[in-house]
Write a structure and sequence with these properties.
heterodimer, A: 520 residues, Hypothetical Protein Pfu-838710-001, nine-stranded antiparallel β-sheet, B: alpha/beta, Rossmann fold, 12 helices, 8 strands, globular, binds adenosine-5'-triphosphate, binds magnesium ion
Chain lengths: 520, 250
């Protein structure tokens, strides 16, 4: 009976409620084994990474089973692992097969239980005159929770044996004639819907349904509301400290809203916009230290790997210090986010940007968003070119940092309004921008991390072994940073000249007549 | 993929009992196993309740492989498939006779099953034909049940001579004692001598047991209805011994 849920081939049928098992017994001479009930707990991430990656992960009887997902049904088991402690991240699993399968789909995300369901299973066999098994059946009904009474769905899987497919086909025909259906939701679908927890695509780059003609205030309002919603949807994950990505995404949402409000000016009255930007700034600042610590801790293995083994133990101590600090910082940050005052700020913002709220007129509120935003985008691009012109081997880190910020602003604008940008060219421009940003990010990380390592050393004044570890890392990071300089220069060349420059100009630089018209 | 055949010139020595239980033991150990019943009597097929195979044309190695594939039947035990016997095997000799490399064709046929199975077990009829010569050349191991009697011993010696004469792979010949009665003095004597003159003898011994005889009543392998009896344990031990001789640890 061990393989009840593993058998995956065969035909899956949803049975009508009035079809009795006894009819199969009497008319088709199927012999059924005793019923067995199992409560399965299903797991996935906040982003439903497993579900959309084509997997289902469930635990039962102390074993995790990773299956392929076939619509809303459990498919073949890909791998299994005994649970010792609860597993949260892919790295908590021990078997190689489980780790490799999950690493790709989970990334930094943690697992949480998405639903529990009880499967009542009965295995049956059809035999021929020689008493040989020629077809297997797996009847199953599923109910919600641990001992849910109400049967949500009855199914029958008809499992042919090789060389006896005709007999299985006859059973399927018998069942379909009595109302069984081979399409429709499977048991996992039904459980999730019952729990009101249906898989939803999650993205930080939603589309907003904009056109070039959408009035600017309506467009920006829609963007802000959507991003606020995404930010808020991440809060429970932050409060429960499920994984680092909740905070990461929350911060991005806030930063993006703040950025669009300052880049596309005069859409809302200046005074209100200023207030909102201040709230957003405050919200982001509360979480700065926690995010820094997350970044250090995520880089732990990479950093230790950069050092020769003898130097590692000393630095492990540093990461333990970070980890301890993080424990405290999590408490602090979640207290702040949970606080009444904070919730009030979020509510204020929601009200301010709500569709119902009437605002005083402002100069850009009613003009079409397309030309308005294109002008902003082109302005950002020119600004980047300006800074880029002064970049050389001697440029101070702060200037490179400034360039990085400008690129980020441009990226946000292009992403928010991607619906308005012609697809192919847009993709090409974004590709170049992304490459440049990647290198700027590497440069900045190396720079910030050198500083934080030295800060740590300053404060801690630990022994010479820590000094060697820190010194070793700092010099590697410095070397990396210098190498990245060259790469940045190269990316800037591509981004600021040639076909990319032409694409920006063609796409975003509007003829005077258009800008004049839209400015009216 | 390993190909293991159960063979003896003598009838009624336990070839089919071996093939059937060995197949069961291999699948129990997690190997995808295919049992091919090459004996037109179809005893192995009977033990798995599988009817005889449909006829198929055997023009060449490829069409034979296709015909065999079409006749694969899943046993009641997932992971163990059977190709039931087929009276047409008799024509196989005639067909082979007209072919180049007529002694090596069967290996080519079985190679077609490599992706699907880890082990193929062949239950052979007690005769020497072109088909059996093909089986010898195709097999990684040829298991020969030897009942410890004077007569069986002679037939085994005949077989080794035949192998030498025909330049067949003697190393693949792996005899073992079958239907052994410990209280029988002659059995004990022969079991003392024979392995000394033939170093390839397997050490596992299959005892004579009423449990094995009951396979005909149950119509299933002994291992499926009497899991822990002495004979069942012996078949499992034989399976382990063969597996380790075929996959020597470095
Ligand atoms: N170890 C054993 N103990 C007792 N009886 C056995 C044993 N092995 C086989 N038998 C019985 O002996 C008879 C012949 O066995 P089996 O069919 O396995 O031999 P065989 O070599 O395949 O015969 P054939 O040459 O006819 O194919 C069968 O009735 C079987 O049940
Ligand atoms: Mg036989």
């Amino acid at each position: 009976m061990g393989s009840l849920l593993k058998i995956n081939e065969g035909i899956r049928l949803v049975l009508p409620n009035d079809l009795k098992v006894s009819s199969l017994q009497e008319e088709r001479h199927v012999v059924f084994h005793e019923q067995e009930s199992r409560t399965l707990a299903f797991w996935d991430t906040f982003e439903w990474g497993l579900w959309f990656g084509g997997y289902v992960l469930y635990s039962y009887g102390g074993v995790y089973h990773l299956c392929s997902r076939e619509e809303g049904w459990l498919g073949a088991v890909i791998c299994e692992e005994e649970t010792g402690d609860r597993r949260r991240f892919w790295g908590d699993f021990e078997t190689v097969s489980m780790r490799t399968a999950l690493e790709r789909t989970l990334g930094l995300r943690s697992l949480a239980m998405v639903v529990e369901g009880t499967f009542h299973l009965r295995l049956g066999e059809l035999r021929n005159e020689a008493e040989k098994i020629v077809c297997r059946l797996e009847l199953s009904s599923v109910s919600a929770g641990r001992e849910g009474e109400e049967k949500l769905l009855r199914t029958c899987q008809v499992l042919p044996l090789r060389g006896y497919e005709a007999e299985a086909a006859r059973v399927v025909e018998y069942l379909t004639q009595r109302g069984a259906k081979s399409s429709g939701d499977g048991p996992v679908d039904v459980l999730l819907r019952h729990a009101n927890n249906e898989p939803q695509k999650y993205t930080l780059r939603p589309s907003f349904g904009l056109t070039k003609e959408t009035p600017a205030r309506e467009a920006i309002g829609r963007i802000v509301r959507t991003m606020l919603e995404i930010a808020v949807s991440n809060i429970p994950g932050i409060l429960n400290d499920l994984d680092t990505e909740f905070l990461h995404d929350y911060r991005i949402c806030i930063r993006k809203i703040r950025s669009v409000l300052s880049l596309v000016k005069d859409v809302y009255p200046a005074e209100g916009t200023g207030r909102m930007r201040k709230i957003l700034g405050d919200l982001a600042r509360q979480t700065n230290r926690l995010r820094d610590l997350d970044v250090y801790l995520l880089a732990r293995d990479e950093y230790l790997g950069l050092l020769p083994p003898e130097l590692r133990p000393a630095l492990e101590g540093m990461f333990e210090d970070f980890s301890a600090e993080r424990d405290i910082e999590v408490q602090d940050t979640t207290l702040k986010i949970r606080a009444h005052s904070n919730r009030k700020l979020l509510r204020k913002m929601a009200v301010y940007f709500s569709e119902e709220t009437a605002h005083k007129p402002s100069s850009s509120a009613d003009i079409p968003v397309g030309p308005l935003v294109f002008r902003c985008i082109y302005k950002r691009y020119r600004k980047i070119r300006e800074i880029a012109a002064g970049i050389g081997t001697e440029t101070p880190d702060e200037v490179v940092h400034q360039l990085r910020i400008e690129c980020k602003k441009l990226r946000y604008l292009m992403e928010f309004f991607s619906e308005l940008i012609p697809g192919e060219e847009g993709a090409q421009m974004l590709k170049m921008l992304r490459r440049l940003q990647g290198r700027l990010g590497d440069f900045n990380d190396a720079s910030v991390q050198q500083k934080s390592l030295l800060d740590y050393w300053e404060h801690k004044k630990s022994g010479p072994d820590v000094a060697m570890g820190v010194g070793g890392l700092v010099s590697i990071l410095y070397h990396r940073q210098q190498q990245t300089r060259g790469l940045i220069k190269q990316s800037l060349g591509e981004f600021c000249g040639g076909s990319t420059a032409a694409a920006f100009k063609n796409t975003f630089k509007l003829s005077d007549s258009v800008s004049a018209k839209s400015a009216q | 993929m390993k190909i293991i055949s159960s063979y003896s010139i003598k009838g009624g020595v336990g070839k089919t009992a071996l093939a059937v239980n060995l197949a069961f033991a291999f699948r129990e150990a997690g190997h995808r196993t295919l049992l091919i019943d090459l004996d037109p009597q179809g005893a192995a097929s009977f033990y798995f309740r599988v009817g005889s195979a449909e006829k198929f044309k055997m023009r060449d190695a490829r069409s034979m492989a296709e015909g065999l594939r079409r006749n694969i039947r899943e046993s009641d035990f997932p992971g163990l498939d059977i190709i039931p016997s087929n009276l047409g095997y008799r024509h196989f000799d005639i067909l082979l006779d007209g072919m180049a490399k007529s002694r090596k064709q069967f290996r080519k046929v079985l190679e077609e099953f490599r992706p699907d199975y880890d082990v193929i077990i062949l239950d052979c009829p007690p005769n020497i034909t072109l088909l059996s010569e093909n089986v010898f050349r195709a097999s990684d191991a040829i298991l020969v049940p030897v009942v410890p009697t004077v007569l069986s011993r002679r037939t085994f010696e005949q077989l080794t001579c035949f192998f030498k004469d025909e330049e067949l792979p003697c190393k693949a010949l792996r005899p073992f004692f079958s239907m052994v009665q410990k209280r029988n003095k002659m059995h004990r004597e022969i079991m003392g001598e024979l392995p000394e003159s033939y170093p390839g003898f397997l050490t596992t011994v299959i005892p004579f047991s009423a449990d094995v005889e009951k396979m005909g009543l149950h119509r299933m392998p002994l291992l499926a209805y009497s899991h822990a009896c002495e004979a069942a344990r012996a078949y499992r031990a034989l399976c382990d011994e063969i597996f380790s001789t075929l996959n020597p640890q470095p």
